[in-house]
Structure formats: C-alpha cells, structure tokens
Amino acid sequence: IVFGSLWLGSLVLNTGDAVKFNSDISLQSVGDMIFQYIIGSIMLATLAGSLMFLISYALLSKIRKPAKD
To answer: Helical H runs in the chain?
Structure first.
C-alpha cells in the first residue's frame, strides 16, 4: 500500500522515480517524499473506494429482491 501510494504520487507529480534510495537524507527530500505519498494515498483511496462502490453496487443489484406491492 505504501509503495502503491508512492508510485501513484510519482505518476501524478511526474517526479520519475517512485522511491529514491540513497544515503543522503535531508529535510527537503523527506518533504518531497511525504508530499508524493500524500498525493498518492489520496489517489489510491479514491480509486479503491470507487472500485469497491462499483463492485458492491453490481452485487447488490443482482442479489436484491424485488419490492412487494
């Protein structure tokens, strides 16, 4: 989930690499990764929520009993 969030964030922000592994850690690089993670996690949550809504709506429309008058 974390890697998916970072990957989606890198696609949206067009940063190139999803995760940059290096030993030179600065406050700026951490800030960039956190912003990328937040954007990616919002996108991933929106996509997952939309997908689950469509799946549950399709299943419930198949299972639902017709209303009696």
So the answer is: 2-13, 27-63
For residues 9 and 43, the answer to whether their CB atoms sit within 8 Å is: yes
Residue 29 in tokens: 């690089």
* Rounded Cα gap, residues 52 and 11, in angstroms: 22
Using CA atoms, how far residue 67 sits from 46, 62, 64, in Å, is 32, 14, 9
Question: What is the C-alpha separation between 51 and 57, in angstroms, rounded?
Answer: 10
Whether 64 has a pLDDT exceeding 70, the answer reads: yes
Which of the pair, 21 or 55, is modelled with greater confidence?
55
